[in-house]
Automatic annotation (TrEMBL):
InterPro entries: RqcP, S4_RNA-bd, S4_RNA-bd_sf. The gene is rqcP. It comes from the Bacteria. Pfam families: S4 (PF01479). This is RQC P-site tRNA stabilizing factor. Associates with stalled 50S ribosomal subunits. Binds to RqcH, 23S rRNA and the P-site tRNA. Does not require RqcH for association with 50S subunits. Belongs to the RqcP family. Keywords: Protein biosynthesis, RNA-binding, rRNA-binding, tRNA-binding. Signal peptide: none annotated. Residues 1-61 form the RNA-binding S4 domain. Key component of the ribosome quality control system (RQC), a ribosome-associated complex that mediates the extraction of incompletely synthesized nascent chains from stalled ribosomes and their subsequent degradation. RqcH recruits Ala-charged tRNA, and with RqcP directs the elongation of stalled nascent chains on 50S ribosomal subunits, leading to non-templated C-terminal alanine extensions (Ala tail). The Ala tail promotes nascent chain degradation. RqcP is associated with the translocation-like movement of the peptidyl-tRNA from the A-site into the P-site.
């Protein structure tokens, strides 16, 4: 599944166009490597996303083509959230 689609369906980022913009600015890593919006994600991948001054890390647990709002959070696990973090 494409990264931008996963971020929208899982509701980590509410709009696919915003997910594409964030990825294309180099603020998302998949398993430690910079990712583009068209990058493919799979179960077990770790996403690291920089939102302003905070950095959030997720692990992908499930992939669905569509999901209900209340079920979206089951698609990932929040691993860590730090402030003022930068990518290594």
């Amino acid at each position: 599944m494409r990264l931008d689609k996963f971020l929208k369906i899982s509701r980590i980022i509410k709009r696919r166009s915003v997910a594409k913009e964030v990825a294309d600015k180099g603020r998302i890593q998949i398993n430690g490597k910079l990712a583009k919006s068209s990058s493919t994600v799979k179960v077990g991948d770790r996403l690291k996303i920089q939102f302003g001054n905070r950095c959030v890390e997720y692990e992908i647990r499930e992939l669905h083509e569509s999901t209900k709002k209340e079920d979206a959070s089951q698609m990932y696990t929040l691993l860590s959230e730090t402030k003022q973090a930068t990518f290594d």
